[in-house]
């Protein structure tokens, strides 16, 4: 990972101004060690000191929504893999008590299995959202304590006074504050959030693996038009590299952090993260809109979208050419990969061809030049332009295009090749960053970009 993307650790919480100017503005995660250990919740919600009884008394039979998944302990974010099921908060607390008792009796839940465990019964627990769902398949995920956008969704406002607003967020317009609580080991699928996030650990331990937005191609994001577009389509616990070949490089772009009770992690918008929670973990997170998104005017969206896609396409073209030039001189180079080499040969020998083999040069440009070769050739022309005087440049192009019976046909052939190359790079960008296989008009010139 680049040095500019290194995750910083702070032993004390900065001021709101320092956070905004020195940390948040970098759009890079940061760990704040022990910054919320003074919360009343850290002491009152601790299961070792009566925290479950306290929470049960405080919230009681208030209804909350539990995420129920048959793929537990892995909880995938798309709607096809889980359901939101209402249940009394006290019922979930009962599951937690039962699980802690089982752990104490060395009958803990095996995180690599699913379904019921011997001797367990949903009916005996007093609640059965699914006939075959076990308590370990339930996770209180994103249960609102505060929701500025929809106050009707707030389910746990009574816990608000046990948590204190972190100083770094005092000037933020919060979108929501949420409770996350699991009674057994749990893992969230890799995903990103459209808000800045401060994840605070109240009790237990979480491991968070993070990837910068630039690593999206390695994580194969879900299609942008889908309902789970912010999730990775790769099952990172058991990836199929035949389906997702780039995923084998994903960990090279990742960073892992361990969070204990009292710690907090700043996760900027757009950063993919996968969270592993130990047995019985409670966390509270704060979401707020970034200053970048807040300052974007709606009427500028189309312009910024085109600029960003153009930048990504240019980067993809550069990367393809870099890969081609690096491997071009290897002995095992396949003959089908020669179009890029043709472009270099045409440039390096262009003057010789102009004087001695004009018709051969014409045939190469009009009929044999591949899209990659056209891109390489014009980039070499740009290098010549930067190194020579205007007079020399004019002489070169007069000689070069003078060999063609139709100079406009030659220019069209080169430009068509360049556009075909850029079109394929653009398709790759859409596939890598937006998800989905987008078809574009096919141009039968040379071969596709690998």
From TrEMBL:
Domain JmjC: 132-305
Pfam family, one: Cupin_8
Coiled-coil segments on the chain, per record: none
Record-linked InterPro entries: Cupin_8 (IPR041667), JmjC_dom (IPR003347)
Signal peptide annotation: none
Family: Belongs to the JARID1 histone demethylase family.
Name of this chain's protein: Uncharacterized protein LOC18613274 isoform X4
Gene giving rise to this polypeptide: LOC18613274
